């Protein structure tokens, strides 16, 4: 290990940076889509008629029971088949992540909505709010405040999970690092550097979550 | 027997105990009262070093509780402690709650521990509850078990931290009855409580605390008839008004 | 959709054998990693609650380090980098003579990673116990160590059976990452069947069903254990 080569890291920085952008892009888009679909699933589960409740429960439980890599493989195989023509691995990965994350966001949403006490629901109705107003002004604001730290934590997990697109050779940050590692024969440098970059980003994120949690308590 | 000598204690910047001193003689029952936040619970927890002090000394029967190197478990085993919320061990049955300390700390045999536990449960009127888990008991019953658990260690003194304040009103007397009986048998007791009826009946002296200070130590009669400080007067008028 | 269905492929050799062997490796990775995760995670979680500040900080550092780096990156570091950092003899042995290096690496990486998550559960279990209940143990004369052994840990572990179950399921799912260093576990075998037969639908369905069945079995088993060991009067008990 005496010959740790910083040069290889510096020279590959532009290439790695492009990879990092792909990782962020994938995280951001999957977060938005997953959150939207997850909210719909949660609302279906709590207030929907029986068939929708049932659908939501089955959906969430299936996606939460299988590995993300398998889901990535599923959609890498399935999406071109359904569309009838090849699509890029970014598209299939984005679909896989969105549908997969939605199952986790749905559970967070459901817990958040259920975390608002019945007393609060009654109190809102008792001062004369309509059920819809009660949802809008009393339940959702409280539920959302309770959820923010968990949602952020899940976003950090999602960002880490995007590294798994390595298995379909989508050139995110992780895949780019491993390409350089293999081409240059500098495995130790590249993987340790990748670990450091992920750590700095995710640790900063988790510090932010802690800060928000403290503010919530105060 | 218990000598609290000029102790100070801080929680960060909050001065929770300010130069408190108090001596308790063998067989004496002392009631400690005062408004909430006055430091009375903290004071009583200092006696068996559940709360460490920042300065001052506490000596229990020649053992300096506050000294470095004191074997605290052995000191604590000799001072019974009863908590506001009972604090029975939820994963153990009632009788196991009474046996644990005897076996693990006093190294008694299971048989001896069980015998002692059974006789104490009988004494607090709960012999038929031995095999139940604490959660199956009412608050009053749980607190009586907690007293029995403390007594199982053959303590030389008992500390009570608001033993009846978490109880429904109709259960208070069953716990106080046990405590009165204990007092009559000559147990040394320090009791943090707002039960002034209990204080009148069995306490020899009353300690009044306010804002971390011991404001007043008086014979029970004197305290109720003619409290020295205005704060104590005010406190008594509030607490006795209803 | 233009697709030639052929479910029978799943029951032909060698593909059926591949699936079963994949399932076996998935379980072998998950269970061995769980042992590491449980032991190391318990130790780290307990150390996060001790009075000594330095020890607490070190334990917290372990958790933050392993939680904030993607498992895939950790796996590659264990596989490609760690043998280089070891003392020469040991490094050589790992690279040349250690039996089944992919499997061992996957187990260690997954175990160390999940230990950080288990540690957080153990810590929060210990910390949900009220201060006066801890005091009650000390007040009858238990030493701090005895208090951990007889009061704090038994209560904590029974509280955290449900979250530990979900950590086990996470390890079970995460064992699929072992395919990236060449362990032919369930997901890898499904992928391989797809590559050989072009029956991706059937292969992935088979893997999905097997994951679902194992998950269901674990959930049912743990629910049983949870009910049997639950402390009377705790949340959810009847």
Automatic annotation (TrEMBL), chain A:
Lineage top rank: taxon: Bacteria
Repeat as UniProt keyword: no
Record InterPro entries: AA_ABC_transptr_permease_3TM, ArtM/GltK/GlnP/TcyL/YhdX-like, MetI-like, MetI-like_sf
Any single Gene Ontology cellular-component annotation: ATP-binding cassette (ABC) transporter complex
Coiled coil: none
Predominant location category: membrane
Keywords attached to this entry: Amino-acid transport, Cell membrane, Membrane, Transmembrane, Transmembrane helix, Transport
The UniProt record lists the keyword Transmembrane: yes
Membrane topology type: Multi-pass membrane protein
Residues covered by the ABC transmembrane type-1 domain: 20-209
GO MF annotation terms: transmembrane transporter activity
GO BP: amino acid transport
Complex formation: The complex is composed of two ATP-binding proteins (GltL), two transmembrane proteins (GltJ and GltK) and a solute-binding protein (GltI).
Family indicated by similarity: Belongs to the binding-protein-dependent transport system permease family. HisMQ subfamily.
PANTHER family documented for this protein: GLUTAMATE_ASPARTATE IMPORT PERMEASE PROTEIN GLTK, MEMBRANE COMPONENT OF AMINO ACID ABC TRANSPORTER
Function: Part of the ABC transporter complex GltIJKL involved in glutamate and aspartate uptake. Probably responsible for the translocation of the substrate across the membrane.
Protein name: Glutamate/aspartate import permease protein GltK
Automatic annotation (TrEMBL), chain B:
Keyword hit for Nucleotide-binding: yes
Gene Ontology molecular function: any one: ATP binding
Keywords, sorted A to Z: Amino-acid transport, ATP-binding, Cell membrane, Membrane, Nucleotide-binding, Transport
Name of one Pfam family that matches: ABC_tran
Main location per the UniProt record: membrane
Classification via InterPro entries: AAA+_ATPase, ABC_ATPase_HisP-typ, ABC_transporter-like_ATP-bd, ABC_transporter-like_CS, MetN_ABC_transporter-like, P-loop_NTPase
Topology in the lipid bilayer: Peripheral membrane protein
Superkingdom assignment: Bacteria
Annotated compartments: Cell inner membrane
Residue stretches making up the ABC transporter domain: 2-236
CC terms in the record's Gene Ontology section: plasma membrane
Record PANTHER family: AMINO ACID IMPORT ATP-BINDING PROTEIN, GLUTAMATE_ASPARTATE IMPORT ATP-BINDING PROTEIN GLTL
Annotated family: Belongs to the ABC transporter superfamily.
Identification of the protein by name: L-glutamate ABC transporter ATP-binding protein/L-aspartate ABC transporter ATP-binding protein
Species this protein is from: Modicisalibacter ilicicola DSM 19980
Organismal lineage: Bacteria, Pseudomonadati, Pseudomonadota, Gammaproteobacteria, Oceanospirillales
TrEMBL record, chain C:
Residue spans crossing the bilayer: 25-47, 59-81, 203-222
Start and end residues of each ABC transmembrane type-1 domain: 23-222
Subcellular location: Cell inner membrane; Cell membrane
Membrane topology: Multi-pass membrane protein
Any Pfam family hit: BPD_transp_1
UniProt keyword list: Amino-acid transport, Cell membrane, Membrane, Transmembrane, Transmembrane helix, Transport
One of the record's GO molecular function terms: transmembrane transporter activity
SUPFAM superfamilies, per database record: MetI-like
One cellular-component annotation, GO: ATP-binding cassette (ABC) transporter complex
Tree of life domain: Bacteria
GO process terms (BP): amino acid transport
Family under the similarity heading: Belongs to the binding-protein-dependent transport system permease family. HisMQ subfamily.
PANTHER family referenced in this protein's UniProt entry, alphabetically: GLUTAMATE_ASPARTATE IMPORT PERMEASE PROTEIN GLTJ, MEMBRANE COMPONENT OF AMINO ACID ABC TRANSPORTER
Protein name: L-glutamate ABC transporter membrane protein /L-aspartate ABC transporter membrane protein
